[in-house]
Specification:
The chain is an alpha+beta fold. The protein has two domains: 2-197, Nucleotidyltransferase, domain 5 (2-Layer Sandwich), CATH 3.30.420.10; 207-266 and 303-359, no CATH class. Helices cover 26% and strands 31% of the residues. It is built from nine helices and 17 strands. A six-stranded mixed β-sheet has the order 1-4-3-2-5-6. The protein has a five-stranded antiparallel β-sheet with strand order 7-8-11-10-9, covered by helices on one side. Strands 12-16-17 form a three-stranded antiparallel β-sheet. The longest helix has 21 residues, at 170-190. It is elongated. It starts with a strand and ends with a helix.
Length: 359
């Protein structure tokens, strides 16, 4: 086994305390001879961690066919000094692969005592919103404008490693170590992608409500979030009823206004009469005094009262009373009032429901 250690200037622009104790946090990545831990081996494990204004890197490289156990043992011993392990898709591949190889070699994995933070799992639901073709690490690096020297994939380097075991070619070893090193260097630089899930999970402050310029049928909510949660690049999405654009720590939410008549449906329709000529429902305790020719038993479809006004759609029942065009509608509406956004809890629930709908 060969151990490589490096240190280079670098700082992390994402607040590491959101992931764990910055002094007890380390990133890791592995290289293997294939995708099945039953038939393939780990030939390289690398770690990188912040230390002051530098990033420190260590790699354990299996330079012989029987050095895998030494690589795993060295990594597990090293991991004992940390509490948080950060990786990219490691929950699905790296950790299960290393665990299985360790058991095959009668070693005890050290993953149970560290908190696992998978960057991929935290941002995979944002693929559509960020307009990404896939969620590979290199794709996200490109989105964040991160450059790398390595041009190979892990799969392409398997044959390079197998050939190195026979040739001991230094250029082949350099390519193998470089690929892992660039993956590791990319991880701290990749962390600002986490500002996207952080941004949409936070509570927003409503700064202003206004009509869209030149569009009286849309209402704009101007919102601000935590200044420490600033998006690397603007993002936007839209459907006919809703649209938003977010940039840095601000977001504008555009909502289509419904102007006209909507219906409020009473839930317990068996307790109501439908008044034929008034086109409305009233409770039986009152309806008993109405001429029998002017009333019938209400149904789910006729157990309503009507309201004329300005309304906003809501993806789920947040504000009461909720109005609909038909009792079969999945989307309801609430009436626009001066105080309808005065409750921050309801407002932020509304924002999150809309964002979830748009994602």
């Amino acid at each position: 086994m060969i151990t490589i250690e490096k240190s280079f200037p670098g700082t992390v622009t994402y607040p590491l305390k959101r992931l764990g104790d910055p002094k007890k946090l380390v990133f890791f990545d592995i290289e293997t001879t294939g995708f099945s831990a039953d038939y393939n081996t780990v030939y390289l494990i690398g770690c990188i961690w912040p230390e002051g204004d530098h990033l420190r890197l260590i790699q354990w490289f299996a330079d012989t066919r029987d050095a895998e156990a030494d690589v795993l043992a060295a990594f597990f011993d090293f991991l004992n000094a940390f509490d948080t392990l950060v990786h990219f898709n490691g929950d699905m591949f790296d950790i299960p692969f290393v665990t299985k190889r360790a058991k095959a070699l009668k070693l005890s994995p050290a993953f149970d005592r560290v908190e696992s933070v998978d960057i991929f799992r935290r941002i995979k639901s944002f693929k559509k919103l960020l307009s990404l073709p896939d969620m590979k690490q290199k794709t996200i690096e490109h989105f964040l404008k991160i450059s790398r020297e390595d041009l190979y994939t892990g799969g392409e380097l398997i044959e390079v490693y197998l050939n190195y075991l026979n040739t001991r070619n230094e250029e082949e070893k350099r390519l193998l170590l470089l690929h892992n090193e660039d993956d590791l260097k990319g991880m701290p630089a990749l962390l600002p992608i986490l500002f996207y899930p952080d941004f949409f999970a936070q509570n927003f402050t409503l700064n202003a409500v206004r009509e869209a310029s030149g569009e009286t049928d849309r209402l704009i909510l101007s919102l601000s979030g935590d200044p420490q949660t600033s998006l690397p690049s603007p993002v936007s999405a839209s459907v006919p009823a809703y649209a938003f654009r977010a940039d840095k720590d601000r977001m504008e939410l555009s909502i289509r206004v419904y102007s006209g008549t909507l219906k409020f449906y009473y839930p317990n329709y068996k307790d109501y009469y439908y008044l034929i000529y008034e086109d409305t429902a009233i409770h039986k305790s009152v309806g008993e005094f109405v001429d029998k020719d002017a009333r019938i038993k209400a149904t789910k479809e006729t157990c309503y009262t009507k309201k004329v006004g300005l309304f906003l759609p809501q993806p789920t029942d947040i504000w009461d009373p909720e109005f609909k065009t038909s009792c079969k509608d999945k989307t309801g509406f609430f009436e626009i009032r001066k105080d309808c956004f005065s409750d921050p809890e309801k407002l932020n629930r509304y924002i999150k429901e809309i964002i979830s709908f748009l994602k």
